[in-house]
Design goal:
Blueprint (H helix, E strand, L loop, with lengths): L1 H24 L14 H13 L6 H4 E10 L4 E4 H10 L8 E9 L3 E9 L4 E11 L2 E11 L1
Parallel strand pairs: 1-6
Antiparallel strand pairs: 1-2, 3-4, 4-5, 5-6
Length: about 150
């Protein structure tokens, strides 16, 4: 009897997951995913999800048109909005093995500067992120990275 119950439970789980995957796959790829960026905190949380957890939804709407990223290292680098978004899309689904902490350095009605620290086993990455209000949404306009 227990084996029969387990079998039915397994079949039900397989059926539910199959239907869920089919429903997910039927959504148009061209449909744009809107992410709630109505507050600076939401935008910062989404930025962290995109950069550390491989989240890909709403990547295009998260960054300001004039976004740029600077990487402070022995050979300083700079990335445009399109270059940065392209690299994030390549990392879709990849989760970084690090501890994330955030500090709000300055905040007003129209901008926020936050320090995002990613602590890895052998090094630490510090990301100073500037967010600005554009209309009703908040967007990331600048990212400056340094490594220790």
């Amino acid at each position: 009897m227990k084996a029969l119950v387990k079998t039915f439970a397994t079949v039900a789980l397989i059926a539910v997951s199959t239907f869920a995957m089919a429903a997910e796959g039927s959504v148009s790829k061209s449909a744009k995913t809107n992410v709630n960026l109505s507050t600076a905190d939401f935008a910062l949380d989404h930025y962290i999800a995109v950069t550390t957890e491989g989240e890909s939804a709403g990547v295009e709407q998260l960054f300001a048109d004039d976004f740029n990223q600077k990487i402070q290292a022995s050979n300083a680098q700079s990335n445009s909005r399109s270059e940065f978004i392209k690299s994030l899309k390549r990392q879709k689904g990849e989760k970084l093995n690090c501890t994330v902490s955030t500090d709000i350095l300055e905040e007003s009605a129209d901008y926020m500067v936050a320090k995002v620290t990613l602590k890895f086993e052998d090094f630490t990455k510090t990301d100073l992120v500037t967010l600005v209000r554009e209309g009703n949404d908040w967007k990331v306009s600048k990212s400056i990275n340094s490594y220790k």
